Amino acid sequence: FYYCFNYFQEYRERDDLPGLLRVYAVQLSCLQLGFYLASWGMLRGSSKMLQRSVRALEPVIEVIATAPSEIWQTDADSYGDGACPVIFETAAMLRTALQGAGSDILVTKIMLGTFGCVPAFDTYFRRGFGTWKFGPKALRDIGAFYHANTEVIERHRVETLDLAGGWSTSAPYLFHR
User: Fold this and answer.
1) Burial of residue 74, with CB atoms counted within 10 A of its CB: 0-12 exposed, 13-18 middle, 19 or more buried
2) CB proximity list for 41: less than 8 A, separation 6 or greater
3) Where are the alpha helices (DSSP H) in the chain?
4) Comparing C-alpha atoms, which of 137, 111, 110 is closest to residue 126?
5) 159: which strand partners?
6) What angle (nearest 5°) sits at the alpha carbon of residue 147, between those of residues 151 and 86?
7) pLDDT tens, position by position, 22-79
8) How far is CA 42 from the centre of its chain?
9) pTM of the prediction?
10) Which of 145, 165, 169, 177 is the most exposed place for a label (fewest CB within 10 A)?
């Protein structure tokens, strides 16, 4: 997670998201995202992604590079009414880019690993949080949980790790911007 997240966040911080689409960066971007997804179990078993080359992630990289700036600043503190149109619009664009492989689990894992704007709606999160669908109600519930526990959550945030030296970065994991 750390390496993928920091890779995409670095482009955002430099205000160079179009740079993700440069010839030399597209391959590395696909590899970063692909290895992250593989480490989270998204390239195994009956997964549609298992049957594809990492190059199939190129349209996903295009979505990430052209996503609205609001998606990069969205976090649980802004889920209040659950609407969060930018989250659901970006999720829809990712589903289209994934050409039939865009489950809630895959889409939210991509959004977590790049934008950091939603949790991964996998089996463990759904079971632990008691929600079954990635939708407005789930975001409303997550937002309410965040607001009810802000002090504890903020006190326990940890920094992500840098690939070059394994050092802590200034970018916290699951951060409030």
Assistant:
1) buried
2) none
3) 2-13, 23-39, 58-66, 85-97, 104-114, 123-129, 136-148, 150-155
4) 137
5) 172
6) 125
7) 999 999 999 999 999 988 777 666 556 555 567 889 999 999 999 999 999 998 988 8
8) 14
9) 0.86
10) 165
